[in-house]
Amino acid sequence: MDVARDTPVPLSRVPDLGEAPPGSAHERALAGLWESAPGWRGWLGTVDHKRIGLRYIVTAFVFLLLGGVEALVMRIQLARPNATLLTPAQYDSLFTMHGVTMIFLYALPVLSGFANYLWPLMLGSRDMAFPRLNAFSYWAFLFAGLFLYASFPLGAVPDGGWFNYVPLTSLDYSAGANIDIYALGMILLGISTTGGAANFVVTLLRMRAHGMSIDRLPIIVWGTLTASVANLVAVPSVSLAFLLLWLDRNAGTHFFDVAHGGRPLLWQHLFWMFAHPWVYVVVLPAMGIVSDALPTFCRRPLVAYEAVAVSTVATMLIGFEVWVHHMFATGIAPLALAFFGAASMLISIPSAVAVFAWIATIWTGRPVFRTPFLYFAGFVLMFVIGGVSGVMTAAVPLDWQLTDTYFVVAHLHYVLLGINVFPVLGGIAYWFPKFTGRMMNERFGHVTFWVVLVGFNLGFFPMHISGLLGMPRRIYTYPAGMGWDTSNLLTTIGSFVFGLGIVMFIVNALVSARHGARAGENPWGAAGLEWSVASPTPVYNFAVLPLVASRHPLWETRDDARRTSVHVGYRLADGREALAVTPLAAMPNAILKMPDDTCVPFVLALLATGVFAAMLVRSPALVCVAVAGCAIATSAWLWPRRTLGQRRRLPARDLTQAPAAAAGPHPDAPSSATVPRGAPTACVEPLPVGSCGERAGGWWGVVTLVVTEAGLFGYLLFCYFYLQSQSAAPWPPEGMPKIGFAAGNTVVLLSSSVFVWLAERAVRAGRRRRAVAALVVALVLGTVFALVQLHEWRDHPYGPTAHLYGSLYFTITGFHLAHVVAGLAILALLAGWTAAGFFGRERRVALTVGGLYWHFVDIVWLFIFTALYVSPYWLGSAG
């Protein structure tokens, strides 16, 4: 009998402590609980982080091969002067899709695969914080990639470069669907990236082993966490840029249209606000792989762990101050040149900290030259070369000379490819036993490494020479006698050698997965928690959740006073369960009920792709149908489930202890299981079960959503004030806005937040009818606000296509109105669920997080109101 489905979820329970010998009934029970169903339902519906992580890695490598083929075709074209293999249009399409593929469809997704697979194992948990969101993020990534590559059979391949500069990509110069495919595909990919980033952040905050405090986190966790926070802040910028471009091309707005007051430079600001931090998004997790795996082969802990962790965070913080580094040649002010040039040089300091730490670890250790170690050592070389060329372009005069030459192409490949590929290949070889239970062929691995190293440097280092000799990037051919012939031929030869090395690595992995030597739990003698479980990893990860007492759990000596317990821990087998902890000290504070497998994430990702496909064919009817489908799928996803502890139970069964069948000791449990001396004191107090408390996982999830949504509105308002500052026309062109009417509507919207707050208080006090009434009033007030906003639109003497101000006004208020409508749908669901008795004093997290989102929507309007209605009076800019 499935206890999780047939018994009520208790409000609280003391986590049972014990052991789980290999092959025990406890392990068999866990395997039955966590195993995915066989067949297509299990394949589509799995939420297992390990299977999702491997899917990310495999899919990213498929895109790596596609991008590599595109690159090799271009290199054949450039191997000799005046080649005619490709036409200019074909070359433009290939270099665009090559860049898009390698940067967006390979570099980050492959690292997301590592993090998805390894994070719960490294942190001592059984899954990610949001398993269904994890599955959705993967499917959205896959469908975004397929959406972009559908441009080939459609004959509409994007050809504006991966940075997609306007006005080249405006409707005047690119009238086909190619740019629309790129824009819509990137927005869908941004949804995937943002969902994955939110999942990583909340997993770090909530899903760790008891005692896994932040000063004990693996560096790869620091790197991926920092990159995830950056994604939450930066991805909205590029998503907004693509949305505004799509509106310019399809709705007649004027954000980038110079003739109507738009500014093409706005695109560069929005794009590079995202793209420069993105460099570190794909570098920092790769650096984390090296920082965590390199010490294993040096037989000592990482030198200066604290400094490396701090430098990881510092690199990303400074990275947000360097976006104008890519715009030095656009005519910006000298003071800005000085500031951003200094910031571009400053960012090399925290990066150098990590380099010195790696070198010191190798120097003071006892290196073992296995295949993973070779890749990590090669990575250090690539890192130094790429870093030095980056610092060179931080000097403004030199940047002016090197901009748009092959020197920049060389730098980009060393940073985005070399610093990524070498850790990835080394990481796969290192964690291959966990993935498959087998070892990769060591001798073939050594040969492959040298092929990859020689091919990479032969392929990309000569690009520096080509650039210094003046070869522009993005040219499809060149005349003889320019001095570029030899360097281009070497680059082409090296590219093929590098490609051969990648193919050799893939062949080694495929053969070793079936015929490699079997690996034990810890074939490398590593220190991390992931090596304390069997190889390949069991579906449930840990039979007992460990208690962590140090940074290197498996390297603790017998006389060490700090002892980690990996064999005696929390058993948690009443259904799919995981332990939640406090964000900093990692003290247990809840027992989480984890969701079963479901096809809803797959269906939602498919429907979301349908929305963008309908936008591509400009069919409002299909858009409405797909959006309605997304709303239904989202409702099914969010519907509170009693088995997950998201709904209150019937009063007659409202017990605070688990049923005997679930709470009693397991037959395999020893009579006096104790943790080792020196381990953290095991939790003996009852913990909330399921979605209880003010800071449940859902609350943290909505906080991450609010952060990224706040960034989106912030970038919108940046566009407003930037374009206003560049406009010579009266602002607003039709005279000052009517502030009184909008102020009254603002009061109406803010009043709705008061009633949402009252509804939550009423539920907390056990007054269900009062809560429903308050939610209904909030619904009415929100609806009034929306109707008044629509009336104001109709009352305006201009529309979104009349001029630049009209485009800004209707886009900003329309975007907010869309959030109001979504919030009203959430309030309607909350009112219905409250009326049905789903929520009580303890089980009300859905109401709390729904209210949090509504408060955010209301607060955002204050900033919009200030910008659109108040700031013109302050600035006095209307004529």
Automatic annotation (TrEMBL):
<dbReference type="GO" id="GO:0016020">
    <property type="term" value="C:membrane"/>
</dbReference>
<feature type="transmembrane region" description="Helical">
    <location>
        <begin position="808"/>
        <end position="833"/>
    </location>
</feature>
<dbReference type="InterPro" id="IPR013833">
    <property type="entry name" value="Cyt_c_oxidase_su3_a-hlx"/>
</dbReference>
<dbReference type="GO" id="GO:0022904">
    <property type="term" value="P:respiratory electron transport chain"/>
</dbReference>
<feature type="transmembrane region" description="Helical">
    <location>
        <begin position="444"/>
        <end position="469"/>
    </location>
</feature>
<keyword id="KW-1133">Transmembrane helix</keyword>
<feature type="domain" description="Cytochrome oxidase subunit I profile">
    <location>
        <begin position="34"/>
        <end position="549"/>
    </location>
</feature>
<dbReference type="GO" id="GO:0015990">
    <property type="term" value="P:electron transport coupled proton transport"/>
</dbReference>
<feature type="transmembrane region" description="Helical">
    <location>
        <begin position="133"/>
        <end position="152"/>
    </location>
</feature>
<dbReference type="GO" id="GO:0020037">
    <property type="term" value="F:heme binding"/>
</dbReference>
<protein>
    <recommendedName>
        <fullName>cytochrome-c oxidase</fullName>
        <ecNumber>7.1.1.9</ecNumber>
    </recommendedName>
</protein>
<feature type="transmembrane region" description="Helical">
    <location>
        <begin position="217"/>
        <end position="246"/>
    </location>
</feature>
<keyword id="KW-0408">Iron</keyword>
<dbReference type="InterPro" id="IPR036927">
    <property type="entry name" value="Cyt_c_oxase-like_su1_sf"/>
</dbReference>
<keyword id="KW-0812">Transmembrane</keyword>
<feature type="transmembrane region" description="Helical">
    <location>
        <begin position="771"/>
        <end position="788"/>
    </location>
</feature>
<dbReference type="InterPro" id="IPR023616">
    <property type="entry name" value="Cyt_c_oxase-like_su1_dom"/>
</dbReference>
<feature type="transmembrane region" description="Helical">
    <location>
        <begin position="699"/>
        <end position="723"/>
    </location>
</feature>
<dbReference type="InterPro" id="IPR035973">
    <property type="entry name" value="Cyt_c_oxidase_su3-like_sf"/>
</dbReference>
<comment type="pathway">
    <text>Energy metabolism; oxidative phosphorylation.</text>
</comment>
<feature type="compositionally biased region" description="Low complexity">
    <location>
        <begin position="658"/>
        <end position="673"/>
    </location>
</feature>
<feature type="transmembrane region" description="Helical">
    <location>
        <begin position="412"/>
        <end position="432"/>
    </location>
</feature>
<keyword id="KW-0813">Transport</keyword>
<dbReference type="GO" id="GO:0006119">
    <property type="term" value="P:oxidative phosphorylation"/>
</dbReference>
<keyword id="KW-0472">Membrane</keyword>
<feature type="transmembrane region" description="Helical">
    <location>
        <begin position="598"/>
        <end position="614"/>
    </location>
</feature>
<feature type="transmembrane region" description="Helical">
    <location>
        <begin position="181"/>
        <end position="205"/>
    </location>
</feature>
<feature type="transmembrane region" description="Helical">
    <location>
        <begin position="489"/>
        <end position="511"/>
    </location>
</feature>
<feature type="transmembrane region" description="Helical">
    <location>
        <begin position="620"/>
        <end position="639"/>
    </location>
</feature>
<feature type="transmembrane region" description="Helical">
    <location>
        <begin position="336"/>
        <end position="361"/>
    </location>
</feature>
<feature type="transmembrane region" description="Helical">
    <location>
        <begin position="56"/>
        <end position="78"/>
    </location>
</feature>
<dbReference type="InterPro" id="IPR000883">
    <property type="entry name" value="Cyt_C_Oxase_1"/>
</dbReference>
<feature type="transmembrane region" description="Helical">
    <location>
        <begin position="845"/>
        <end position="870"/>
    </location>
</feature>
<dbReference type="GO" id="GO:0004129">
    <property type="term" value="F:cytochrome-c oxidase activity"/>
</dbReference>
<dbReference type="InterPro" id="IPR014241">
    <property type="entry name" value="Cyt_c_oxidase_su1_bac"/>
</dbReference>
<keyword id="KW-0186">Copper</keyword>
<feature type="transmembrane region" description="Helical">
    <location>
        <begin position="98"/>
        <end position="121"/>
    </location>
</feature>
<dbReference type="InterPro" id="IPR000298">
    <property type="entry name" value="Cyt_c_oxidase-like_su3"/>
</dbReference>
<feature type="transmembrane region" description="Helical">
    <location>
        <begin position="739"/>
        <end position="759"/>
    </location>
</feature>
<dbReference type="Pfam" id="PF00510">
    <property type="entry name" value="COX3"/>
</dbReference>
<feature type="domain" description="Heme-copper oxidase subunit III family profile">
    <location>
        <begin position="697"/>
        <end position="873"/>
    </location>
</feature>
<dbReference type="Pfam" id="PF00115">
    <property type="entry name" value="COX1"/>
</dbReference>
